[in-house]
């Protein structure tokens, strides 16, 4: 057959349209017990189209095997990876394909859709073979506006396929070639190229200039999206972040995105910028996430959700995803406060006022350059103002005093309340506790900026009030690691309160010694701290209560620190009773000795607690003298 008749070609085009409809639309409604029914029907149509094209090619004088099967045969030796591509050759000419080139492109397109079909039905080897056959057909063509879209699509699919097999280097090769092809095409030609769906439609049904542009740019957006994941896999985090940003920005420009999915990706990207100290960029990502998530609509009311299972599912999904974005905001506020604390604290962890003044002067100079760039800008004219209004609610600058720190704290606390609306204790134990721990950490960071010691104590008391009930109620069998975290944090919190109470008492000008009320309060805080440190240590013991001979790496430092702190706390307890004093000193000595003896038996452990070990050695030498003096005094009194 030398050529298709008009009716024959219409039949081919109709089959192609039907195959796409089956794959992209009807397959969504396939029953659970036959999930690939529409995909298999589409495959049959694509195979028929391929045979028709090959028959036409044979009748027109091209090579053709007489015994060709009903489905296109794979290459004899399917290629595993991307062959080196002469990209310079691509850029030398972007002329239209010859008639033979168009035939090759049509065959390549059918192989591409068959490859995607097999991958979708979890037949990866067959899918790979068809996709490589597509590459083989394209190898006969020079890249042009008629086929460049297919050149990129097939490499995107091979990139996905190899990434799914954990062959990330092969995936990277295909995707980076797709990226280079796009960039060279845009440099040398740039006109909206033919989409491969147009190989099988009549002239009057060809896509418009705008539709072609959108489809081509979307294919390249997918290339960038997959490359972002590849670079993240290889630990190239900055590169991955740049590709992720480009993907998100292009999705907005093309208006091709799911609002909640886009918002979650933007919120996730913010966490990278936060860890790099780029708070302007992190804030912009989070503000954009907040605005775009609003496009998903309102959370359905409980009444509507009860009436419809679909509405109930939608309600829960929206609540969860918005709560996840809220958690990213919490991390933003918490890290901003913590990083500011690191900049401002002196060598004993207190506010360095000289450093504070220095940073104020530096900020003034920065504000003079306020017209400086913003590395990221999401959105269009419709969303810029909305994003900016969200950004204005929280600073990206390091807070330098309590007023500024409190403003950031309040934003973080607001998002804590939002996050807890979905992540409740009933059903989300781990998530709920993590949010409470972040809330506690916000109070701790804010307390650093508070100059009033009494108010600092109250902030730490808030931390105790939110964590202590949870810690005591949790089942140790199922939540041992979380309980350990809470025990340690509660012990440290009580310890901080004890130090603050002692500082406050020592500032009282009229008193030469502590009054009974202060002593009682001090001892309570001291004992509470020692109790939680001891609970942490007890949690490391065997069910029979035996202390482990070897501490695992993840608990080594916490265990040695807890031992040191218990020793220190027992030595600080105030009592007028010599026997009680002696008991406290003996307990202190016992714990100091443990730190020294453990590090002697396990020399590698010394590096985990250098300061604590040094002080413990010193106290092991001094405490026996103090104990002996106390014993002598007790003997004399008796």
Automatic annotation (TrEMBL):
**Intracellular or extracellular location(s):** Cytoplasm, Cytoskeleton
Bias type Acidic residues, positions: 59-79
Keyword terms = Coiled coil, Cytoplasm, Cytoskeleton
Q: Where is the signal peptide?
A: none
Q: Name one GO cellular component term.
A: cytoskeleton
| Ion transport listed as a keyword | no
Coiled coil (residue ranges): 301-354
Work out whether the entry's keyword set contains ATP-binding: no
User: Region Disordered: which residues?
Assistant: 58-87
A GO BP term here is:
efferent axon development in posterior lateral line nerve
Return the Pfam families for the record: KBP_C (PF12309)
* PANTHER family per the UniProt record, alphabetical: KIF-BINDING PROTEIN, KIF1-BINDING PROTEIN
Q: Hey, which family's this protein in?
A: Belongs to the KIF-binding protein family.
Instruction: Please identify the protein, giving its name as recorded.
Output: KIF-binding protein
Q: State the species of origin.
A: Oryzias latipes (Japanese rice fish)
């Amino acid at each position: 057959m030398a050529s298709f008749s008009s009716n024959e070609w219409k039949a081919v085009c109709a089959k192609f349209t039907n195959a796409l409809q089956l794959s992209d639309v009807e397959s969504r409604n396939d029953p659970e017990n036959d999930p690939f029914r529409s995909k298999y029907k589409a495959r049959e149509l694509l195979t028929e189209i391929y045979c028709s094209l090959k028959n036409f090619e044979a009748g027109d004088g091209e090579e053709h095997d007489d015994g060709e099967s009903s489905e296109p045969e794979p290459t004899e030796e399917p290629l595993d990876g991307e062959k080196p591509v002469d990209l310079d050759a691509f850029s030398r000419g972007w002329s239209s394909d010859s008639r033979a080139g168009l035939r090759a492109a049509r065959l390549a397109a059918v192989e591409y859709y068959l490859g995607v079909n097999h991958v979708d039905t979890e037949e990866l080897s067959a899918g790979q073979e068809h996709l490589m056959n597509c590459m083989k057909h394209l190898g006969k063509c020079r890249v042009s506006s008629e086929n460049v879209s297919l050149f990129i699509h097939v490499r995107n699919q091979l990139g996905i396929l190899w990434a799914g097999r954990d062959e990330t280097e092969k995936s990277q090769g295909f995707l980076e070639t797709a990226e280079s092809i796009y960039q060279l095409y845009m440099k040398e030609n740039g006109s909206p190229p033919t989409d491969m769906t147009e190989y099988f439609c009549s002239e009057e049904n060809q896509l418009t200039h705008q539709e072609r542009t959108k489809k081509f740019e979307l294919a390249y957006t997918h290339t960038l999206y997959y490359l972002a994941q590849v670079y993240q896999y290889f630990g190239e985090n900055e590169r991955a972040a740049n590709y992720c940003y480009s993907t998100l920005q292009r999705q907005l420009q093309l208006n091709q995105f799911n609002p909640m999915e886009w918002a979650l990706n933007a919120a996730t990207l913010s966490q990278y910028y936060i860890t790099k100290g780029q708070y302007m960029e992190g804030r912009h990502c989070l503000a954009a996430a907040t605005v775009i998530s609003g496009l998903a609509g309102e959370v359905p009311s409980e009444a509507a959700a009860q009436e419809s299972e679909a509405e109930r599912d939608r309600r829960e999904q929206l609540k969860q995803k918005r709560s996840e974005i809220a958690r990213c905001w919490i991390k933003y506020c918490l890290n901003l406060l913590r990083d500011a604390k690191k900049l401002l604290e002196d060598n004993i962890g207190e506010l360095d006022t000289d450093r504070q003044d220095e940073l104020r002067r530096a900020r003034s100079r920065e504000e003079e350059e306020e017209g400086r760039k913003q590395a990221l800008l999401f959105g269009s004219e419709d969303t810029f103002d909305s994003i900016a209004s969200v950004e204005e609610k929280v600073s990206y600058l390091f807070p330098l005093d309590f007023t500024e720190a409190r403003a950031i704290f309040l934003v973080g606390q607001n998002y804590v309340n939002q996050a807890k609306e979905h992540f409740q204790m009933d059903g989300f134990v781990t998530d709920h506790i993590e949010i409470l721990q972040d809330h506690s950490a916000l109070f701790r960071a804010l307390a650093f900026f508070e100059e009033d010691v009494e108010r600092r104590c109250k902030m730490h008391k808030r931390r105790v009030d939110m964590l202590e009930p949870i810690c005591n109620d949790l089942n140790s069998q199922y939540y041992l690691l979380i309980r350990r975290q809470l025990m340690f944090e509660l012990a440290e919190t009580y310890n901080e309160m004890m130090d603050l109470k002692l500082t406050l008492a020592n500032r009282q000008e009229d008193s030469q010694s502590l009054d009974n009320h202060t002593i009682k309060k001090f001892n309570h805080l001291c004992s509470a701290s020692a109790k939680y440190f001891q609970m942490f240590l007890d949690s490391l013991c065997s069910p029979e209560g035996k202390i482990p001979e070897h501490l695992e790496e993840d608990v080594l430092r916490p265990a040695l620190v807890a031992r040191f702190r218990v020793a220190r706390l027992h030595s600080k307890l105030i009592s007028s009773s010599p026997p009680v004093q002696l008991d406290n000193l003996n307990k202190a000595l016992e714990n100091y000795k443990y730190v020294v003896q453990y590090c002697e038996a396990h020399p590698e452990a010394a590096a985990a607690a250098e300061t604590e070990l040094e002080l413990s050695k010193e106290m092991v030498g001094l405490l026996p003298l103090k104990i002996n003096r106390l014993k002598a005094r007790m003997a004399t009194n008796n």
